[in-house]
Protein backbone atom coordinates (compact mmCIF):
# COMPACT_ATOMS: atom_id res chain seq x y z
CA UNK A 1 0.00 0.00 0.00
CA UNK A 2 1.26 3.47 -0.88
CA UNK A 3 1.99 5.50 2.22
CA UNK A 4 2.73 9.16 2.92
CA UNK A 5 6.13 10.13 4.20
CA UNK A 6 4.91 10.89 7.66
CA UNK A 7 2.60 7.91 8.00
CA UNK A 8 5.09 5.20 8.91
CA UNK A 9 6.57 7.43 11.55
CA UNK A 10 3.26 8.29 13.17
CA UNK A 11 2.26 4.72 13.74
CA UNK A 12 5.70 3.75 14.88
CA UNK A 13 5.42 6.48 17.50
CA UNK A 14 1.91 5.50 18.57
CA UNK A 15 3.19 2.84 20.93
CA UNK A 16 0.94 2.08 23.84
CA UNK A 17 2.84 1.05 26.91
CA UNK A 18 0.29 -0.88 28.95
CA UNK A 19 1.63 -2.31 32.15
CA UNK A 20 1.13 -6.04 32.01
CA UNK A 21 2.62 -7.57 35.15
CA UNK A 22 2.67 -11.38 35.11
CA UNK A 23 1.13 -13.18 38.08
CA UNK A 24 3.22 -15.46 40.20
CA UNK A 25 2.97 -18.92 38.82
CA UNK A 26 4.04 -20.93 41.86
CA UNK A 27 4.04 -24.63 41.25
CA UNK A 28 0.68 -24.70 39.37
CA UNK A 29 1.26 -25.54 35.65
CA UNK A 30 -1.97 -23.76 34.65
CA UNK A 31 -0.96 -20.67 36.59
CA UNK A 32 2.48 -20.83 35.02
CA UNK A 33 0.90 -21.02 31.56
CA UNK A 34 -1.32 -18.02 32.30
CA UNK A 35 1.67 -16.06 33.56
CA UNK A 36 3.61 -17.01 30.44
CA UNK A 37 0.84 -15.73 28.19
CA UNK A 38 0.66 -12.43 30.02
CA UNK A 39 4.42 -12.06 29.93
CA UNK A 40 4.46 -12.81 26.21
CA UNK A 41 1.72 -10.23 25.57
CA UNK A 42 3.67 -7.63 27.54
CA UNK A 43 6.85 -8.52 25.64
CA UNK A 44 5.16 -8.21 22.23
CA UNK A 45 3.61 -4.91 23.26
CA UNK A 46 6.99 -3.51 24.31
CA UNK A 47 8.75 -4.65 21.11
CA UNK A 48 6.29 -3.25 18.55
CA UNK A 49 8.22 -0.15 17.54
CA UNK A 50 11.61 -1.23 18.84
CA UNK A 51 12.38 -4.64 17.29
CA UNK A 52 10.25 -5.86 14.40
CA UNK A 53 11.76 -9.36 14.23
CA UNK A 54 11.26 -10.17 17.91
CA UNK A 55 7.80 -8.57 17.81
CA UNK A 56 6.73 -10.86 14.97
CA UNK A 57 8.18 -13.89 16.77
CA UNK A 58 6.18 -13.05 19.88
CA UNK A 59 3.02 -12.69 17.76
CA UNK A 60 3.57 -16.13 16.25
CA UNK A 61 3.91 -17.68 19.70
CA UNK A 62 0.74 -15.95 20.89
CA UNK A 63 -1.24 -17.15 17.87
CA UNK A 64 -0.06 -20.70 18.52
CA UNK A 65 -1.54 -20.45 22.04
CA UNK A 66 -4.64 -18.41 21.19
CA UNK A 67 -7.05 -21.21 22.16
CA UNK A 68 -5.93 -20.83 25.76
CA UNK A 69 -6.43 -17.03 25.89
CA UNK A 70 -9.36 -15.45 27.68
CA UNK A 71 -11.45 -12.65 26.13
CA UNK A 72 -9.33 -9.79 27.45
CA UNK A 73 -6.13 -11.46 26.22
CA UNK A 74 -7.67 -12.21 22.83
CA UNK A 75 -8.60 -8.54 22.48
CA UNK A 76 -5.03 -7.52 23.36
CA UNK A 77 -3.78 -9.95 20.72
CA UNK A 78 -6.27 -8.46 18.25
CA UNK A 79 -4.82 -5.03 18.96
CA UNK A 80 -1.25 -6.27 18.35
CA UNK A 81 -2.37 -7.97 15.15
CA UNK A 82 -4.01 -4.75 13.94
CA UNK A 83 -0.80 -2.89 14.70
CA UNK A 84 1.26 -5.41 12.71
CA UNK A 85 -1.12 -5.25 9.71
CA UNK A 86 -0.85 -1.47 9.56
CA UNK A 87 2.87 -1.03 10.22
CA UNK A 88 4.42 -4.16 8.70
CA UNK A 89 1.70 -6.10 6.89
CA UNK A 90 0.87 -3.45 4.25
CA UNK A 91 -2.86 -3.93 4.90
CA UNK A 92 -3.99 -0.71 6.53
CA UNK A 93 -7.65 -1.27 5.72
CA UNK A 94 -7.76 -4.62 7.53
CA UNK A 95 -5.83 -3.15 10.47
CA UNK A 96 -8.26 -0.25 10.75
CA UNK A 97 -11.23 -2.61 10.72
CA UNK A 98 -9.77 -4.68 13.60
CA UNK A 99 -8.89 -1.60 15.66
CA UNK A 100 -12.30 0.01 15.10
CA UNK A 101 -13.99 -3.18 16.25
CA UNK A 102 -11.94 -3.05 19.44
CA UNK A 103 -12.73 0.63 19.98
CA UNK A 104 -16.46 -0.08 19.95
CA UNK A 105 -16.51 -3.51 21.64
CA UNK A 106 -13.68 -3.74 24.20
CA UNK A 107 -14.85 -3.55 27.81
CA UNK A 108 -11.50 -2.28 29.04
CA UNK A 109 -11.33 1.54 28.69
CA UNK A 110 -7.55 1.36 28.40
CA UNK A 111 -7.75 -1.00 25.42
CA UNK A 112 -10.51 1.10 23.82
CA UNK A 113 -8.30 4.16 24.09
CA UNK A 114 -5.32 2.33 22.59
CA UNK A 115 -7.46 1.07 19.72
CA UNK A 116 -8.84 4.55 19.06
CA UNK A 117 -5.35 6.03 18.96
CA UNK A 118 -4.29 3.31 16.53
CA UNK A 119 -7.30 3.96 14.27
CA UNK A 120 -6.53 7.70 14.15
CA UNK A 121 -2.94 6.95 13.10
CA UNK A 122 -4.06 4.33 10.63
CA UNK A 123 -6.37 6.69 8.79
CA UNK A 124 -3.43 9.06 8.51
CA UNK A 125 -1.34 6.22 7.08
CA UNK A 126 -4.09 5.66 4.52
CA UNK A 127 -3.84 9.42 3.77
CA UNK A 128 -7.39 9.94 4.97
CA UNK A 129 -6.37 12.84 7.18
CA UNK A 130 -9.87 14.16 7.79
CA UNK A 131 -11.12 10.80 9.06
CA UNK A 132 -7.98 10.45 11.18
CA UNK A 133 -8.68 13.78 12.86
CA UNK A 134 -12.33 12.87 13.37
CA UNK A 135 -11.41 9.62 15.09
CA UNK A 136 -8.75 11.38 17.15
CA UNK A 137 -11.43 13.76 18.43
CA UNK A 138 -13.55 10.75 19.42
CA UNK A 139 -10.62 9.17 21.24
CA UNK A 140 -8.91 12.04 23.08
CA UNK A 141 -11.83 12.89 25.40
CA UNK A 142 -11.71 9.27 26.68
CA UNK A 143 -8.18 9.70 28.04
CA UNK A 144 -9.65 10.85 31.36
CA UNK A 145 -11.23 7.39 31.75
CA UNK A 146 -7.87 5.65 31.29
CA UNK A 147 -6.19 4.38 34.46
CA UNK A 148 -2.85 3.51 32.90
CA UNK A 149 -0.83 6.70 32.62
CA UNK A 150 1.39 5.29 29.86
CA UNK A 151 -1.61 4.53 27.66
CA UNK A 152 -3.01 7.99 28.34
CA UNK A 153 0.29 9.49 27.29
CA UNK A 154 0.09 7.56 24.05
CA UNK A 155 -3.12 9.35 23.11
CA UNK A 156 -1.62 12.79 23.61
CA UNK A 157 1.49 11.66 21.71
CA UNK A 158 -0.70 10.53 18.82
CA UNK A 159 -2.36 13.95 18.80
CA UNK A 160 1.05 15.67 18.82
CA UNK A 161 2.28 13.48 15.96
CA UNK A 162 -0.80 14.02 13.81
CA UNK A 163 -0.85 17.78 14.32
CA UNK A 164 2.86 17.99 13.46
CA UNK A 165 2.15 16.21 10.19
CA UNK A 166 -0.70 18.60 9.40
CA UNK A 167 1.53 21.63 10.03
CA UNK A 168 -0.30 22.62 13.24
CA UNK A 169 2.88 22.84 15.26
CA UNK A 170 1.50 24.93 18.12
CA UNK A 171 -1.17 22.31 18.81
CA UNK A 172 1.41 19.55 18.52
CA UNK A 173 3.65 21.26 21.06
CA UNK A 174 0.69 21.66 23.45
CA UNK A 175 -0.15 17.95 23.46
CA UNK A 176 3.51 16.97 23.75
CA UNK A 177 3.83 19.30 26.75
CA UNK A 178 0.78 17.63 28.35
CA UNK A 179 2.60 14.29 28.22
CA UNK A 180 5.92 15.65 29.44
CA UNK A 181 4.25 17.38 32.39
CA UNK A 182 2.71 14.11 33.65
CA UNK A 183 5.90 12.23 34.63
CA UNK A 184 5.92 9.97 31.57
CA UNK A 185 7.76 6.67 31.23
CA UNK A 186 11.02 6.78 29.21
CA UNK A 187 9.38 5.68 25.93
CA UNK A 188 6.49 8.14 26.23
CA UNK A 189 8.97 10.88 27.19
CA UNK A 190 11.08 9.98 24.14
CA UNK A 191 8.10 10.31 21.80
CA UNK A 192 6.72 13.46 23.40
CA UNK A 193 10.17 15.07 23.49
CA UNK A 194 10.65 14.29 19.79
CA UNK A 195 7.28 15.81 18.89
CA UNK A 196 8.01 18.91 20.95
CA UNK A 197 11.46 19.21 19.37
CA UNK A 198 10.05 18.88 15.85
CA UNK A 199 7.32 21.45 16.54
CA UNK A 200 9.79 23.95 17.98
CA UNK A 201 12.12 23.39 15.03
CA UNK A 202 9.31 24.08 12.54
CA UNK A 203 8.21 27.13 14.54
CA UNK A 204 11.79 28.49 14.53
CA UNK A 205 12.03 28.36 18.33
CA UNK A 206 15.29 26.39 18.69
CA UNK A 207 17.68 29.20 17.85
CA UNK A 208 21.29 27.97 17.65
CA UNK A 209 21.05 25.79 20.76
CA UNK A 210 20.98 22.10 19.92
CA UNK A 211 21.61 20.81 23.45
CA UNK A 212 17.98 19.82 24.04
CA UNK A 213 17.91 17.91 20.74
CA UNK A 214 21.10 15.99 21.59
CA UNK A 215 19.78 15.23 25.06
CA UNK A 216 16.54 13.84 23.63
CA UNK A 217 18.51 11.81 21.06
CA UNK A 218 20.57 10.23 23.84
CA UNK A 219 17.46 9.33 25.85
CA UNK A 220 15.76 7.65 22.90
CA UNK A 221 18.89 5.72 21.95
CA UNK A 222 19.27 4.56 25.54
CA UNK A 223 15.90 2.80 25.50
CA UNK A 224 16.37 1.32 22.03
CA UNK A 225 13.89 3.49 20.12
CA UNK A 226 15.86 3.43 16.87
CA UNK A 227 13.11 4.89 14.69
CA UNK A 228 12.58 7.93 16.91
CA UNK A 229 16.33 8.39 17.31
CA UNK A 230 16.70 8.35 13.50
CA UNK A 231 14.03 11.00 13.09
CA UNK A 232 15.63 13.17 15.77
CA UNK A 233 18.96 12.91 13.96
CA UNK A 234 17.42 14.12 10.70
CA UNK A 235 15.78 17.06 12.47
CA UNK A 236 19.00 17.85 14.34
CA UNK A 237 20.97 17.66 11.07
CA UNK A 238 18.56 20.10 9.45
CA UNK A 239 18.95 22.42 12.42
CA UNK A 240 22.76 22.23 12.21
CA UNK A 241 22.72 22.95 8.48
CA UNK A 242 20.29 25.84 8.93
CA UNK A 243 22.51 27.40 11.60
CA UNK A 244 25.65 27.28 9.45
CA UNK A 245 27.12 23.93 10.57
CA UNK A 246 26.67 21.63 7.55
CA UNK A 247 29.84 19.61 8.24
CA UNK A 248 28.53 18.68 11.70
CA UNK A 249 25.24 17.66 10.10
CA UNK A 250 27.00 15.43 7.58
CA UNK A 251 29.10 13.78 10.28
CA UNK A 252 26.02 13.18 12.44
CA UNK A 253 24.19 11.43 9.60
CA UNK A 254 27.13 9.45 8.23
CA UNK A 255 27.91 7.93 11.63
CA UNK A 256 24.55 6.13 11.75
CA UNK A 257 23.40 5.81 8.12
CA UNK A 258 24.05 2.06 8.00
CA UNK A 259 22.29 1.55 11.32
CA UNK A 260 19.22 3.45 10.12
CA UNK A 261 19.20 1.53 6.83
CA UNK A 262 19.17 -1.74 8.76
CA UNK A 263 16.00 -0.72 10.64
CA UNK A 264 14.08 -1.14 7.39
CA UNK A 265 11.60 1.74 7.53
CA UNK A 266 11.40 3.08 3.94
CA UNK A 267 10.36 6.57 5.00
CA UNK A 268 13.18 6.95 7.51
CA UNK A 269 15.75 5.56 5.09
CA UNK A 270 14.59 7.97 2.38
CA UNK A 271 14.69 10.93 4.78
CA UNK A 272 18.19 10.04 5.97
CA UNK A 273 19.67 9.36 2.56
CA UNK A 274 17.96 12.31 0.89
CA UNK A 275 19.10 14.83 3.49
CA UNK A 276 22.61 13.42 3.39
CA UNK A 277 22.69 13.65 -0.42
CA UNK A 278 21.62 17.32 -0.30
CA UNK A 279 24.31 18.19 2.26
CA UNK A 280 27.02 16.25 0.42
CA UNK A 281 26.12 17.86 -2.93
CA UNK A 282 26.34 21.31 -1.34
CA UNK A 283 29.73 20.42 0.17
CA UNK A 284 31.06 19.18 -3.20
CA UNK A 285 31.08 15.42 -2.53
CA UNK A 286 29.41 14.45 -5.81
CA UNK A 287 30.06 10.73 -5.50
CA UNK A 288 28.62 10.54 -1.98
CA UNK A 289 25.67 12.74 -2.95
CA UNK A 290 24.88 10.52 -5.93
CA UNK A 291 25.12 7.30 -3.91
CA UNK A 292 22.81 8.57 -1.17
CA UNK A 293 20.32 10.18 -3.58
CA UNK A 294 20.01 6.90 -5.47
CA UNK A 295 19.52 5.03 -2.19
CA UNK A 296 16.76 7.49 -1.27
CA UNK A 297 14.83 7.18 -4.55
CA UNK A 298 15.04 3.41 -4.24
CA UNK A 299 12.49 3.76 -1.43
CA UNK A 300 10.08 5.79 -3.58
CA UNK A 301 7.70 2.88 -4.29
CA UNK A 302 6.64 2.72 -0.65
CA UNK A 303 6.41 6.41 0.25
CA UNK A 304 4.65 8.29 -2.51
CA UNK A 305 4.21 11.98 -1.77
CA UNK A 306 7.42 12.50 0.28
CA UNK A 307 9.57 15.63 0.30
CA UNK A 308 12.68 13.45 0.61
CA UNK A 309 12.11 11.77 -2.78
CA UNK A 310 11.73 15.13 -4.52
CA UNK A 311 14.95 16.41 -2.91
CA UNK A 312 16.84 13.28 -3.95
CA UNK A 313 15.74 13.59 -7.59
CA UNK A 314 16.69 17.27 -7.53
CA UNK A 315 20.21 16.36 -6.38
CA UNK A 316 20.54 13.77 -9.17
CA UNK A 317 19.23 16.28 -11.70
CA UNK A 318 21.73 18.96 -10.62
CA UNK A 319 24.65 16.51 -10.69
CA UNK A 320 23.72 15.19 -14.16
CA UNK A 321 23.31 18.73 -15.49
CA UNK A 322 26.71 19.81 -14.16
CA UNK A 323 28.31 16.66 -15.61
CA UNK A 324 27.02 17.52 -19.07
CA UNK A 325 24.52 14.66 -19.35
CA UNK A 326 21.46 16.57 -20.61
CA UNK A 327 19.28 13.56 -21.40
CA UNK A 328 19.87 12.05 -17.96
CA UNK A 329 19.37 15.45 -16.34
CA UNK A 330 16.09 15.91 -18.18
CA UNK A 331 14.81 12.53 -16.98
CA UNK A 332 15.78 13.27 -13.38
CA UNK A 333 14.19 16.71 -13.64
CA UNK A 334 10.94 15.15 -14.86
CA UNK A 335 10.93 12.76 -11.89
CA UNK A 336 11.80 15.62 -9.55
CA UNK A 337 8.88 17.66 -10.88
CA UNK A 338 6.49 14.73 -10.41
CA UNK A 339 7.72 14.05 -6.85
CA UNK A 340 7.60 17.74 -5.98
CA UNK A 341 4.04 17.99 -7.28
CA UNK A 342 3.07 14.88 -5.30
CA UNK A 343 4.51 16.47 -2.17
CA UNK A 344 2.69 19.75 -2.73
CA UNK A 345 -0.56 17.85 -3.28
CA UNK A 346 0.11 16.00 -0.04
CA UNK A 347 0.55 19.27 1.84
CA UNK A 348 -2.63 20.73 0.36
CA UNK A 349 -4.54 17.57 1.22
CA UNK A 350 -3.41 17.79 4.84
CA UNK A 351 -4.28 21.48 5.11
CA UNK A 352 -7.71 20.91 3.57
CA UNK A 353 -8.38 17.98 5.93
CA UNK A 354 -7.52 20.11 8.95
CA UNK A 355 -9.72 22.98 7.81
CA UNK A 356 -12.66 20.65 7.09
CA UNK A 357 -12.45 18.92 10.46
CA UNK A 358 -11.88 22.21 12.29
CA UNK A 359 -15.10 23.57 10.77
CA UNK A 360 -16.95 20.39 11.68
CA UNK A 361 -15.54 20.56 15.20
CA UNK A 362 -16.60 24.17 15.57
CA UNK A 363 -20.15 23.32 14.58
CA UNK A 364 -20.16 20.26 16.84
CA UNK A 365 -18.86 22.33 19.77
CA UNK A 366 -21.62 24.85 19.25
CA UNK A 367 -24.18 22.06 19.26
CA UNK A 368 -22.60 20.53 22.36
CA UNK A 369 -22.64 23.90 24.09
CA UNK A 370 -26.30 24.32 23.25
CA UNK A 371 -27.06 20.82 24.52
CA UNK A 372 -25.06 21.52 27.67
CA UNK A 373 -27.10 24.64 28.28
CA UNK A 374 -30.30 22.71 27.74
CA UNK A 375 -29.11 19.94 30.07
CA UNK A 376 -28.18 22.48 32.69
CA UNK A 377 -31.65 23.96 32.45
CA UNK A 378 -33.14 20.50 32.88
CA UNK A 379 -30.97 19.86 35.92
CA UNK A 380 -32.07 23.13 37.46
CA UNK A 381 -35.68 22.28 36.80
CA UNK A 382 -35.24 18.87 38.41
CA UNK A 383 -33.59 20.45 41.46
CA UNK A 384 -36.50 22.83 41.85
CA UNK A 385 -38.99 20.00 41.46
CA UNK A 386 -37.25 18.07 44.23
CA UNK A 387 -37.98 20.90 46.66
CA UNK A 388 -41.33 21.48 48.27
CA UNK A 389 -44.60 21.07 46.41
CA UNK A 390 -45.33 24.78 46.34
CA UNK A 391 -42.19 25.52 44.37
CA UNK A 392 -43.02 22.65 42.03
CA UNK A 393 -46.47 24.05 41.33
CA UNK A 394 -44.96 27.48 40.78
CA UNK A 395 -42.47 26.06 38.31
CA UNK A 396 -45.27 24.31 36.41
CA UNK A 397 -47.21 27.56 36.38
CA UNK A 398 -44.21 29.47 35.04
CA UNK A 399 -43.69 26.88 32.34
CA UNK A 400 -47.33 27.12 31.35
CA UNK A 401 -47.09 30.91 31.21
CA UNK A 402 -43.98 30.63 29.06
CA UNK A 403 -45.70 28.14 26.77
CA UNK A 404 -48.78 30.35 26.56
CA UNK A 405 -46.57 33.31 25.69
CA UNK A 406 -44.84 31.34 22.95
CA UNK A 407 -48.19 30.18 21.58
CA UNK A 408 -49.57 33.71 21.77
CA UNK A 409 -46.63 35.17 19.89
CA UNK A 410 -46.71 32.31 17.41
CA UNK A 411 -50.40 33.09 16.84
CA UNK A 412 -49.66 36.81 16.54
CA UNK A 413 -46.81 36.10 14.13
CA UNK A 414 -49.04 33.88 12.01
CA UNK A 415 -51.74 36.53 11.92
CA UNK A 416 -49.14 39.14 11.03
CA UNK A 417 -47.89 36.96 8.18
CA UNK A 418 -51.42 36.47 6.91
CA UNK A 419 -52.12 40.19 7.23
CA UNK A 420 -48.96 41.10 5.33
CA UNK A 421 -49.76 38.58 2.64
CA UNK A 422 -53.30 39.94 2.39
CA UNK A 423 -51.98 43.50 2.05
CA UNK A 424 -49.50 42.35 -0.57
CA UNK A 425 -52.18 40.63 -2.67
CA UNK A 426 -55.35 42.67 -2.15
CA UNK A 427 -56.57 46.18 -2.73
CA UNK A 428 -57.15 47.74 0.73
CA UNK A 429 -60.16 49.80 -0.38
CA UNK A 430 -62.28 47.29 -2.28
CA UNK A 431 -60.87 43.98 -1.11
CA UNK A 432 -60.28 42.91 -4.71
CA UNK A 433 -57.03 41.32 -5.79
CA UNK A 434 -54.33 43.86 -6.69
CA UNK A 435 -52.16 44.07 -9.75
CA UNK A 436 -49.28 42.13 -8.11
CA UNK A 437 -51.48 39.12 -7.39
CA UNK A 438 -53.06 39.41 -10.83
CA UNK A 439 -49.63 39.28 -12.50
CA UNK A 440 -48.48 36.28 -10.45
CA UNK A 441 -51.71 34.40 -11.18
CA UNK A 442 -51.25 35.05 -14.88
CA UNK A 443 -47.70 33.65 -14.76
CA UNK A 444 -49.01 30.49 -13.10
CA UNK A 445 -51.64 30.02 -15.77
CA UNK A 446 -49.26 30.66 -18.65
CA UNK A 447 -46.54 28.36 -17.31
CA UNK A 448 -48.90 25.51 -16.42
CA UNK A 449 -48.59 22.37 -18.60
CA UNK A 450 -51.03 22.13 -21.48
CA UNK A 451 -52.43 24.79 -23.74
CA UNK A 452 -55.67 25.66 -21.99
CA UNK A 453 -56.97 28.97 -23.41
CA UNK A 454 -57.00 32.02 -21.16
CA UNK A 455 -59.12 35.09 -21.81
CA UNK A 456 -58.71 38.60 -20.50
CA UNK A 457 -61.43 41.20 -19.86
CA UNK A 458 -60.33 44.72 -18.96
CA UNK A 459 -62.67 47.56 -18.19
CA UNK A 460 -62.45 51.14 -17.07
CA UNK A 461 -65.30 53.02 -15.35
CA UNK A 462 -66.77 55.77 -17.55
CA UNK A 463 -66.67 59.28 -16.12
CA UNK A 464 -65.43 58.20 -12.75
CA UNK A 465 -63.60 61.51 -12.24
CA UNK A 466 -66.95 63.27 -12.54
CA UNK A 467 -68.33 61.15 -9.69
CA UNK A 468 -65.33 62.01 -7.50
CA UNK A 469 -65.42 65.70 -8.40
CA UNK A 470 -69.20 66.03 -8.27
CA UNK A 471 -70.09 63.95 -5.21
CA UNK A 472 -66.80 63.58 -3.34
CA UNK A 473 -64.23 60.85 -2.98
CA UNK A 474 -66.31 58.99 -0.41
CA UNK A 475 -69.00 58.47 -3.06
CA UNK A 476 -66.33 57.43 -5.57
CA UNK A 477 -65.03 54.88 -3.06
CA UNK A 478 -68.57 53.59 -2.55
CA UNK A 479 -68.92 53.14 -6.32
CA UNK A 480 -65.64 51.21 -6.52
CA UNK A 481 -66.72 48.89 -3.72
CA UNK A 482 -70.09 48.22 -5.42
CA UNK A 483 -68.33 47.52 -8.74
CA UNK A 484 -66.14 44.92 -7.02
CA UNK A 485 -69.14 43.29 -5.34
CA UNK A 486 -71.00 43.04 -8.65
CA UNK A 487 -68.04 41.59 -10.53
CA UNK A 488 -67.17 39.10 -7.82
CA UNK A 489 -70.66 37.68 -8.00
CA UNK A 490 -70.16 37.13 -11.71
CA UNK A 491 -66.76 35.40 -11.51
CA UNK A 492 -66.14 31.71 -10.88
CA UNK A 493 -63.64 30.44 -8.29
CA UNK A 494 -61.04 29.90 -11.04
CA UNK A 495 -61.38 33.41 -12.44
CA UNK A 496 -59.02 36.11 -11.22
CA UNK A 497 -60.69 39.49 -10.76
CA UNK A 498 -58.40 42.39 -9.80
CA UNK A 499 -58.27 46.14 -9.50
CA UNK A 500 -55.22 47.00 -11.57
CA UNK A 501 -55.51 50.79 -11.48
CA UNK A 502 -57.55 53.62 -9.98
CA UNK A 503 -60.84 52.80 -11.75
CA UNK A 504 -59.44 50.10 -13.99
CA UNK A 505 -60.22 46.42 -13.48
CA UNK A 506 -59.39 43.12 -15.15
CA UNK A 507 -60.74 39.59 -15.17
CA UNK A 508 -58.50 36.66 -16.13
CA UNK A 509 -60.66 33.71 -17.21
CA UNK A 510 -58.85 30.35 -17.59
CA UNK A 511 -60.44 27.80 -19.90
CA UNK A 512 -62.55 30.44 -21.74
CA UNK A 513 -62.44 31.20 -25.44
CA UNK A 514 -63.07 34.66 -26.87
CA UNK A 515 -66.82 34.12 -27.13
CA UNK A 516 -67.09 33.14 -23.48
CA UNK A 517 -64.95 36.13 -22.48
CA UNK A 518 -67.18 38.50 -24.49
CA UNK A 519 -70.23 37.04 -22.80
CA UNK A 520 -68.69 37.65 -19.37
CA UNK A 521 -67.83 41.22 -20.37
CA UNK A 522 -71.37 41.89 -21.58
CA UNK A 523 -72.86 40.40 -18.44
CA UNK A 524 -70.55 42.52 -16.31
CA UNK A 525 -71.35 45.66 -18.29
CA UNK A 526 -75.08 45.07 -17.87
CA UNK A 527 -74.81 44.48 -14.14
CA UNK A 528 -72.70 47.59 -13.62
CA UNK A 529 -75.23 49.69 -15.47
CA UNK A 530 -77.94 48.31 -13.17
CA UNK A 531 -76.25 49.49 -9.96
CA UNK A 532 -78.63 51.61 -7.85
CA UNK A 533 -76.69 54.63 -6.58
CA UNK A 534 -79.38 55.77 -4.14
CA UNK A 535 -77.61 54.04 -1.26
CA UNK A 536 -74.72 56.50 -1.66
CA UNK A 537 -77.04 59.48 -1.23
CA UNK A 538 -76.58 60.60 -4.79
CA UNK A 539 -78.01 59.72 -8.16
CA UNK A 540 -75.62 58.70 -10.92
CA UNK A 541 -75.09 55.87 -13.38
CA UNK A 542 -72.16 53.49 -13.27
CA UNK A 543 -71.01 52.35 -16.68
CA UNK A 544 -67.75 50.97 -18.02
CA UNK A 545 -65.92 50.44 -21.30
CA UNK A 546 -64.59 46.92 -21.91
CA UNK A 547 -61.72 45.46 -23.91
CA UNK A 548 -61.55 41.70 -24.50
CA UNK A 549 -58.88 39.37 -25.87
CA UNK A 550 -57.63 35.81 -25.33
CA UNK A 551 -54.40 33.83 -25.43
CA UNK A 552 -55.39 32.22 -28.71
CA UNK A 553 -55.19 35.67 -30.31
CA UNK A 554 -52.49 37.42 -28.29
CA UNK A 555 -50.33 34.49 -27.22
CA UNK A 556 -49.63 33.23 -23.72
CA UNK A 557 -48.06 36.47 -22.57
CA UNK A 558 -49.73 38.82 -20.10
CA UNK A 559 -48.11 41.97 -21.44
CA UNK A 560 -49.31 41.24 -24.98
CA UNK A 561 -52.83 40.37 -23.82
CA UNK A 562 -53.12 43.48 -21.65
CA UNK A 563 -51.88 45.62 -24.52
CA UNK A 564 -54.55 44.22 -26.87
CA UNK A 565 -57.29 44.45 -24.26
CA UNK A 566 -56.26 48.00 -23.42
CA UNK A 567 -56.51 49.02 -27.08
CA UNK A 568 -59.99 47.53 -27.26
CA UNK A 569 -60.95 49.34 -24.04
CA UNK A 570 -59.92 52.69 -25.43
CA UNK A 571 -61.73 51.91 -28.67
CA UNK A 572 -64.87 51.35 -26.62
CA UNK A 573 -64.26 54.74 -25.02
CA UNK A 574 -63.92 56.39 -28.39
CA UNK A 575 -67.02 54.72 -29.76
CA UNK A 576 -69.26 56.04 -27.03
CA UNK A 577 -68.40 54.14 -23.86
CA UNK A 578 -70.58 51.63 -22.00
CA UNK A 579 -69.75 48.98 -24.54
CA UNK A 580 -67.56 45.92 -25.22
CA UNK A 581 -64.87 45.79 -27.88
CA UNK A 582 -63.37 42.41 -28.73
CA UNK A 583 -59.96 41.90 -30.35
CA UNK A 584 -60.31 40.06 -33.71
CA UNK A 585 -63.45 38.10 -32.95
CA UNK A 586 -63.93 35.35 -35.56
CA UNK A 587 -67.05 35.62 -37.76
CA UNK A 588 -68.36 32.21 -36.68
CA UNK A 589 -68.36 33.34 -33.11
CA UNK A 590 -70.05 36.65 -33.99
CA UNK A 591 -72.90 34.80 -35.71
CA UNK A 592 -73.29 32.57 -32.68
CA UNK A 593 -73.26 35.45 -30.21
CA UNK A 594 -77.00 36.46 -30.35
CA UNK A 595 -78.03 32.93 -29.48
CA UNK A 596 -75.49 32.81 -26.59
CA UNK A 597 -76.60 36.17 -25.28
CA UNK A 598 -80.25 35.23 -25.54
CA UNK A 599 -79.66 32.05 -23.51
CA UNK A 600 -77.64 33.95 -20.91
CA UNK A 601 -80.37 36.50 -20.17
CA UNK A 602 -78.37 39.62 -21.08
CA UNK A 603 -80.52 42.57 -22.11
CA UNK A 604 -81.20 43.09 -25.79
CA UNK A 605 -79.29 46.33 -25.78
CA UNK A 606 -76.05 44.37 -25.26
CA UNK A 607 -76.09 43.03 -28.81
CA UNK A 608 -75.92 46.46 -30.30
CA UNK A 609 -72.97 47.45 -28.14
CA UNK A 610 -70.56 44.68 -29.19
CA UNK A 611 -67.75 45.80 -31.49
CA UNK A 612 -65.66 43.23 -33.33
CA UNK A 613 -62.26 44.24 -34.68
Can you walk me through this structure?
The chain folds into three domains: 1-18 and 33-217, Alpha Horseshoe (Serine Threonine Protein Phosphatase 5, Tetratricopeptide repeat), CATH 1.25.40.10; 245-365, Tetratricopeptide repeat domain (Serine Threonine Protein Phosphatase 5, Tetratricopeptide repeat); 435-612, 2-Layer Sandwich (Alpha-Beta Plaits), CATH 3.30.70.270. Mean pLDDT is 83; it is low at 1-26 and 596-613. It has helices at residues 7-13, 29-47, 52-64, 71-87, 92-105, 109-125, 129-139, 149-165, 169-180, 186-202, 211-222, 226-242, 246-254, 257-263, 266-283, 286-297, 307-322, 326-385, 389-425, 435-447, 464-471, 473-490, 514-529, 551-554, 558-574, 587-600, 605-608, and strands at 454-461, 496-499, 504-510, 544-550, 580-582, 610-612. It has 613 residues and is mainly α. Helix content is 69%, strand content 5%. The longest helix is centred in the middle third of the chain and has 60 residues, at 326-385. The protein has 27 helices and six strands. Strand 2 and strand 3 (504-510) form a beta hairpin. The chain is elongated. Helix 6 (109-125) packs antiparallel against helix 7. Strands 2-3-1-4-5-6 form a six-stranded mixed β-sheet, with helices on both faces.
Amino acid sequence: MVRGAFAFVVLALAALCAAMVPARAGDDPAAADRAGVRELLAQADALRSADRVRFEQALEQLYARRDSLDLAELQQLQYLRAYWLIVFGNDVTAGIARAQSLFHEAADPDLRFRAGSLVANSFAINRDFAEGLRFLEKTLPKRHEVDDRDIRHDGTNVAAALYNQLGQYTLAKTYAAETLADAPAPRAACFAGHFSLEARLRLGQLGEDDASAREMLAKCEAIGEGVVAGIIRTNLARHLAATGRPSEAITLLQQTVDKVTAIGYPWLVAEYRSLLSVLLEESGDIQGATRNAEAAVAQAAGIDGARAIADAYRVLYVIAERAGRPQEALEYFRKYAEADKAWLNEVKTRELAYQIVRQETSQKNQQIELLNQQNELLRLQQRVQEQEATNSRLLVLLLLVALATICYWAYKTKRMQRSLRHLAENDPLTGARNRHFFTQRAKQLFTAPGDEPVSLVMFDLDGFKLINDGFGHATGDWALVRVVEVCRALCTPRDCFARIGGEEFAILIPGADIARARHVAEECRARLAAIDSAESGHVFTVTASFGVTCSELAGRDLTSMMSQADRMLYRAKREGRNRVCVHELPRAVVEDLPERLSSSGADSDARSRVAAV
